[in-house]
Amino acid sequence: QVQLVESGGGLVQAGGSLRLSCAASERMFSTNVMGWYRQAPGKEREFVAQMNNDGTANYADSVKGRFTISRENAKNTVYLQMNSLKPEDTAVYYCRAGPFLAGAGLFWGQGTQVTVSS
Asked: Using CA atoms, how far apart are residues 98 and 89, in angstroms rounded to an integer?
């Protein structure tokens, strides 16, 4: 059973920083992707950032220059460093990753709440 365990969410003032982590319980295929999505109240889930196993990364326009995604392949872990946070960044942040040796396709974490106060 593949599990993605997220941590690092919390409450922060505007302009502050948080670092999210997501650790996968299983080994991944050599070609894989790990990334982050978010869902604000009343809105659809949206893409934030992702990184392939070769280090190439993509970001949503709304977070470029403020968020940085990184990963430790040996630990099957992906991070999201969030700087200059804004109230509009408030959302539940979800990790998505795959495929895994234990299961094809992409899997979701349970989510971690990020709240940015003005």
From this structure: 25
- Spatial CA neighbour of 93 closest among 104, 85, 105: 85
User: Using one digit for the tens of pLDDT, what is the confidence trace for 6-43?
Assistant: 999 999 999 999 999 999 998 888 888 999 999 999 99
Alpha carbons within 13 angstroms on the beta-carbon side of residue 9 total 19
**What is the dihedral angle through the alpha carbons of 33, 39, 43, 48, rounded to the nearest 10 degrees?**
-40
Burial of 66 (0-12, 13-18, 19+ CB in 10 A): middle
One-letter identity of residue 19:
R
Please state the separation of Cα 2 from the chain's center in Å: 16
Query: For residue range 80-98, what is the model confidence (pLDDT) as tens digits?
Result: 999 999 999 999 999 999 9
Q: What is the DSSP letter of 87?
A: G
CB 102 within 8 A of CB 90: no
Q: Classify the phi-psi angles of 10: left when phi > 0, otherwise alpha if psi is within -120 to 50, otherwise beta.
A: left
